[in-house]
Automatic annotation (TrEMBL):
Pfam families: AMP-binding (PF00501), AMP-binding_C (PF13193). Belongs to the ATP-dependent AMP-binding enzyme family. Keywords: Ligase. The keyword Hydrolase does not apply. One of its GO terms (molecular function) is 4-coumarate-CoA ligase activity. SUPFAM superfamilies: Acetyl-CoA synthetase-like (SSF56801). Residues 97-142 form the AMP-binding enzyme C-terminal domain. InterPro entries: AMP-bd_C, AMP-bd_C_sf, AMP-dep_synth/lig_dom, ANL_N_sf. This is 4-coumarate--CoA ligase. It catalyses: (E)-4-coumarate + ATP + CoA = (E)-4-coumaroyl-CoA + AMP + diphosphate. Residues 2-46 form the AMP-dependent synthetase/ligase domain. Gene3D superfamilies: 3.30.300.30, N-terminal domain of ligase-like. Its EC number is 6.2.1.12.
Length: 143
């Protein structure tokens, strides 16, 4: 198993990666929602038809809510959660990607990105950063 990978799909199960908005299957190495189908997958939520319908589609695919991809060696990588995605002007923005960019800056030792409601854009990403020891980096320099 590669570093950062979750392994491969379990025996007797099918896995696909889809574009969350359209349901279109995506190719390898392209992140999307992880869906899984097989006899070992739950059949639904007890006494909650609505939650079941929101999780398992008519073809039996369980929509995990995880954003990930399958690489060329069939290894699965989870990179984010669908519900955590920031909806900015119709685009899905992954907080983890923005955090990764911030953490690559030598003056930043930690970062967290969350959504903030915005009338014009729907949501906008807001970053909270911890400066590296002694750094005087400013908000304008980070933008």
């Amino acid at each position: 198993v590669k570093s950062g990978a979750c392994g491969t799909v379990v025996r007797n199960a099918e896995l696909k990666i889809i574009e969350p908005e359209t349901g279109r299957s995506l190719p390898r190495n392209q992140p999307g929602e992880i869906c899984i189908r097989g006899s070992q997958i739950m059949k639904g939520y007890l006494n909650d038809l609505e939650a079941t319908a929101n999780t398992i589609d008519k073809d039996g695919w369980l929509h995990t809510g995880d954003i990930g991809y399958v690489d060329d060696d069939d290894e699965i990588f989870i990179v984010d959660r669908l519900k955590e995605l920031i909806k900015y002007k119709g685009f899905q923005v992954a907080p983890a990607e923005l955090e990764g960019m911030l953490l690559n800056h030598p003056s930043i030792s930690d970062a967290a990105v969350v959504a903030m409601k915005d009338e014009a854009a729907g949501e906008v990403p807001v970053a909270f950063v911890v400066r590296s020891g002694g750094s005087q980096i400013s908000e304008d320099e980070i933008k």
